[in-house]
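Item description
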Amino acid sequence: MTHVVFVAIQTQPGLAGDVCERLRGERYVHNACPVHNGPYDVVLLVEVPDIADYHVLALEILPNIVGIDDYESFMAAGV
C-alpha cells in the first residue's frame, strides 16, 4: 500500500524556489510546487511505501534543508 502525504512548507523569504529545486531530487517526493498566496510557500506531494519512509524525510531530511522555517504534514486517507 502506498501512503500519500502532502507537506506544506514555510520558507525563509525568497527561498521557495531553491527549496523546491532541492526537494525535487529527494526520494519519494513526486512534486514540489511553490505557492503564490497563503501561509505556506511550498507544497510537496510525497508517496511512500511505508510510513517509516516518510518519517525519515520529515525528521531527518526536511529539518536540515537550508531555507525551511517550518512545515506541516497532511496524510491522505483512503487513497
